[in-house]
Amino acid sequence: MISNIWNAILYHPLLNALAFLVSVIPGGDVGVAVILLTILVKIALFPLSQKSIESQAEMNLLTPELNKIKNSGANKEEQARLTFELYKKHKVNPFSGCLLVIIQIPVIFALYYVFLKGINFDNSFLYSFVHVPEKISMVFLGIIDISKKSLVLAILAGVSQYLQAHFMPKPTQPTNTNSSSTPSFQESFTKSMNMQMKYVFPFIITFIAYSVSGAVALYWITSNLFMVAQQIYVKKEKTFKTVIK
Fold it and tell me: What pLDDT does residue 177 have?
């Protein structure tokens, strides 16, 4: 039952979209189709991901105020009340970002699964108005065979993952800090996670990307670069709004 819903709502529509793109792209370049389909899905999810990034950026801007509440010496009930008032004042929902990310996960995973499972345009999976492409080329731009492992694409996937982590909104550091004070567990954990996302995760992505086909690596590169562009856009938009205010 669940697999039927998965196939009907996500997997089959994406597979059909890929087949259509391959059929209209000159030379049937599957690599170009992978890039275009990834971008189209990202554009469709843009409002959700945009709101998620904005929510994360807004939460990071409130970090100094949240630290003041935490260090005020008030009891937990009073801290909770002050924190709620702060969120209400700035119209920030601390859970909206997580919810929006969760909504996107099935779509992104389905797209990843299409490329991971292999480019197999079976007539039984295609809609009546979508035909198996007459020409299918797995050699991306006539250079890289994306049906096989590709070290070049794997490395680029790792680099793009680093760039995405680099441009992610980061918590605002407090301007007045006591050098003798010990960072809280949350602060230490957040800093550790940021370091791992930036310097460790790219190597993991490179390893995984090299373990699968070049099509998956190409998907990762396109997806990460799209997110980098979106994060830069959000940052500039926030800066512009701040200047206007």
Answer: 47
Output the CA–CA distances (angstroms, integers) from residue 20 to 120, 127, 130, 150, 240, in the order listed. 13, 10, 6, 25, 40
pLDDT at 222: 92
The position carrying tokens 């096989």 is 148
pLDDT of residue 95: 64
Segments in the chain below pLDDT 50:
175-181, 185
Number of compact structural domains in the chain: 1
Burial status of residue 128 (CB atoms within 10 A of its CB: 0-12, 13-18, 19 or more)? exposed
Answer for the pair 200, 134: CB distance below 8 angstroms, yes or no. Answer: no
Instruction: Using CA atoms of 77, 78, 84, 90 in order, give the dihedral in degrees to the nearest 10.
Output: -160
- Which residue is associated with the tokens 């003041």? 68
| Residues of the chain by 3-state class (helix, strand, coil), percent to 5 | 70, 0, 25
How many residues in total does the chain contain?
245
Query: How far apart are the C-alpha atoms of 48 and 112, rounded to whole Å?
Result: 18
**pTM (predicted TM-score):** 0.74
Residues spanned by the domain of 212:
2-244
With CA atoms as reference, report the closest residue to 31 among 136, 135, 123.
136
Q: What is the pLDDT of residue 189?
A: 52
